[in-house]
Structures are given as structure tokens and as C-alpha cells.
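Exercise 7.
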Amino acid sequence: MTVIRQQDLIQSVADALQYISYYHPVDFIHAMHEAYLREESEAARDAMAQILVNSRMCAIGHRPICQDTGIVTALVKVGMDIQWQADMSVTDMVNEGVRRAYLNPDNVLRASILEDPDGARKNTGDNTPAVIHYELVPGGTLEIYLAAKGGGSEAKAKFAMLNPSDSIVDWIVEQIPKMGAGWCPPGMLGVGVGGTAEKAMLMAKESLFDPIDIQELSARGASTRAEELRLELMSAINRLGMGAQGLGGLTTVLDVKVKDYPTHAANKAVAIIPNCAATRHIHFTLDGSGPATFTPPKLEDWPDIVWQVGEDVRRVNLDDLTPESICDWQPGETVLLSGKLLTGRDAAHKKIVDMLADNEPLPVDFTNRFIYYVGPVDPVDGEVVGPAGPTTATRMDKFTRTMLEQTGLIGMIGKAERGPVAIEAIRDNKAVYLMAVGGAAYLVSKAITAAKVVAFPELGMEAVYEFDVVDMPVTVAVDCDGNSVHESGPQKWQGIIEEHSLNLV
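Solution. The predicted structure, written as C-alpha cells, is:
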């Protein structure tokens, strides 16, 4: 009879979540490197280089790969022969492990979980509770699958109850462009087919724990319909030409995973959930002998890549910008920013817009300033700021016209594309939108030399900061005329792919 001790489970969960905060799975590193070597799009290749360099930096520095350290999902397989030496429930033990991981003073992880989700939306402060799924299985071991899932990629999950005769491939290929680049491609796509609505969604999430092995499948050939779907979807999605960060290129997904389950004759449930470039998951087993141990990857597992900007890069001083000076910036152009940069996310934008509506004075002067959509990780060990990568810009679209027309703001920085409402506001006000690479948060933070909260400290990680930055790398995503690289880039590369009939599996 296996006896699982309370402290062993708590410690294992805490250690596992710390581990995946700064170590990518080795299969992901290798798949990203192979995609980098194949890539022909300069912008996409640059983005993948930043992701790989950031990954190695995080492995060395033991700091989060992404500032969004995720919502924890746990799949718990409980052996029916287990006995517990515990006075807490299994759910409480898992949540205590999450709490200890996210409050670890040596590597503080950002707490992003809000209770009362349609009301006060108050941060719980320790990233609990986790989302936990249980399965009772034969045997005397406890298997735990843990993921720390970023909100940007989780927001792109899709579900449909198709008719039995409908094409799954057609439906998914139709959804991918609608998802945009807010899930930080290239990454994995999890697909659940069959069962009921909730079963399909759970299978899609479960599939993301599997290793990247699409190349091996392609070499040996499919033996089931689920494997055929993987190959068909991998090719069809990459032929869309979205590429890394949606900038246009050869690789949008590194792998497609498919799980299926018997379903009702009238139904064909299909769920898709993407995993971003900060993919974080791990599996461990407790057998009563003590807590789980985790062996770090070797630094040799990371490719020897140095991210560098070209000679013709545009360097700008944020403190000297005027509306006129930004109007010759071109979509797809790399810009290095230096000077003072404001930050703000959803909650800060909402407060600013409400203050403007009530004719209240703003706590910050936005005239001729840029705002960076970011919620950084708390600093440790003398850091100015923790990992500080961009958040999904489309969430700020509904605030954009008001911000540009009533505050004097002239530019914004985030990740992924902007929607039509925001692009129209940018064009009408001759502003610009710049894109930082999602999945390179620690690398970005090294460009920040000073940071202080200047407004709304009560919002925690969503407070308005002022950063001093030196050579912060960004790409012009929408210019003063409303031209978007997220539209032109994929269109260009879709044409190139079709013309050359490239193998994209």
C-alpha cells in the first residue's frame, strides 16, 4: 500500500511550477530551433531568435520565460490503492503548492488570478485557486500533470458543435486567422474531437501535455484518423503564412495534437486550444518514496544563437518625439527605443477613460508619450523590474480612440495585431502601434534601466509604471496611415508558400 505524504505533494507541486517558469521543455527548444533554421521571413526569424535567446537567459537566470506566469491547470490521476498521510484535501494540497511556488522570494511569479470574475475582479494575491481535474485509476501511484497557461493563449480557445458531415480541417483553418497572433505563435495547437462539449475542451487541453513529435509522425505515416488530422492540420495551418508573432512566415504551429472520444450520432464536438511560445508543462509521479525531483536541461540543449539588430535599425529617443517625427516609420521596420516609457493595461485604461468622462485630472501627462501594454513580474535580487513582456494589444482596442484623442498619446506598444476599431483610430490620429515579441519577457526586461509606479498603485501589476529604457527592440506593426504588418505579412507569405508548394509539416 502506497502512502503519499501531504508535504511531498505540496513540495512537488511548488518545485514543478518553479521549474517550468524558467525551463522550456527540451522538445520545444529543439522544435523552435528547427523552425528558426527553416524560416525565410526575416521578421519571423528575428522573433524566433528573441524567443530562443530569452529561453536560454531564463534557464541561466532562473527567471520567468514570460511575465504572464499563467493560470495553473492540474490533471491528477489518483491510484486507487493510495493511502494519504494528510489532514488537507488533495485540492488544498495542490493549491498550497501553487501558493508556495508563486510566492517564492527567490523567483517571484506574477499573481494573475482574480476572484469575483464578473464583479470586483480582485486579485487573490497568490495565483490560487488552480483548475484541477481528477481521475481515479488502478494502482498505487499519484500522477500529476501541471501546466501554467498564459491568459493570452487561453483567450484564443474555440469550440464548435459541428454537424457530423462537416470538415474539422475546414473549420479549424477558418478559426486560425480569427485567433490572430495574441497566442504568441509559433506554438502548439491542441484539438479535442468528440465526446460532449466539456469533454472536447478537456481533451484539447490534455493534448498539450504531449511532446512535440510531428516530424516523427510524418516520417512513419498516420495509422488513425486522429493522426491523419494532425498531419492535415499542420500543413493547412502553416500554409496560411501567419508565421511567428503573426508577422508572416513559414511556421505558425510547431505541432498539432489531436485527442478523440466516442460521441453521440448527432454530434461532432470540436475544441481547439493553443499553447504559446512560453509553453509550460510538466509531468511527475509520486510513489510514496518522497517528493518528485526535476533534472534541469543541459545548457547545450539550447542553440548557440545571438540576437542582433542590423546596421540600418532606427534608434529613437522617446523623450524627443513629436507627432510629425513618427510618420515616416514603416510597417515591419525594427526600432530601438530609449528614454521614458509609460505602461498600462486593461484596468489602468478603464480608470483613465472613466476619469476623462468625469472631467477629472489625470495623474500622468501622456502628451507625446508612448504607452506599453505590460504587467511586469516583481523584481528580485536587485533587479529594476522582473520579466516584462507585452500583453495582447487587442484588449485595449476599445480604449484607443479616447486615449489618442483626449490624452495626447501618440504611440502604443503591445503584442499581436490591432483590430479595425484601433487601426482606424491610429490612422485618424496619425499615431503608431509598435509590437514587442511575446515570449521574450526576460530579454525585454534587460532593456529597462529604471522603473517606478506613477499612478494607480492599488492595481498591483496593472499599475501605471514609468520605465527608463535603452535600446528596447520593437517592430512597427501599424503606421500613421493605418497600414498593418499583421495584414501584409501573412498575405505575402501565403502567396510565397502557394507559389513554391513548400512542405510545411
